[in-house]
Specification:
Length: 177
């Protein structure tokens, strides 16, 4: 395993620990709650072990799925034995017959972030579009690297700030919610 892979794994493990502490301390999730997570792409932090841990605690895990380009995401239920299939952009997603869920909380990957809770992703606008349509909005937590912090992302009118930003260094931005 390369040094980069070793560092990435230990960073992902630290993020998972930080999420578990946040959920425990703030009582954000409980058995029966629904959390949307993500299947990592392009070097995003790998929090898949957390999916199994939360599932084991009775929390329902969902993964975001693009069913139609430029439309809000849908959230399909994931379980450890779920047969994954390739979706848009070749991302692994639960199959079409998986149960559709509405998340109480969302863990959202960050390419970049600022202290106002705004994020940069890969430019599709899917998370902002989805957050704008969900009522009540889910508690949104950005997951990213400390080194990805920017002074500002110059938010646009359609950008929606996340409730929290978590990095390997801990809680960075807390807009509550």
């Amino acid at each position: 395993m390369s040094l980069e892979a070793t560092v990435r794994r230990s960073t992902s493990e630290k993020i998972i620990q930080n999420v578990q502490e946040l959920f425990a301390n703030r009582k954000i999730m409980r058995a029966g709650s629904v959390v949307s997570m993500y299947w990592p792409i392009k070097g995003e932090l790998d929090i898949r072990p957390l999916m199994e841990a939360l599932h084991g605690e009775g929390i329902l895990v969902a993964l975001p799925v693009v069913e139609t380009k430029a439309a809000p995401l849908v959230f399909r239920r994931w379980m450890p034995d779920t047969r994954m299939e390739r979706g848009y952009w070749n991302i692994l997603v639960p199959p079409a017959e998986a149960q559709i869920l509405t998340p109480d909380a969302m863990l959202v990957p960050l390419v970049g972030w600022d202290m106002e809770g705004y994020r940069l992703g890969y430019g599709g606008g899917y998370f902002d579009r989805t957050l704008a349509t969900l009522s009540p909005p889910p508690f949104s937590i950005g997951i990213g690297l400390q080194s990805a912090q920017l002074a500002t992302i110059y938010p646009q009118p359609h950008d929606i700030p996340l409730n929290l930003i978590l990095t390997e260094a801990g809680l960075q931005s807390d807009l509550g919610g």
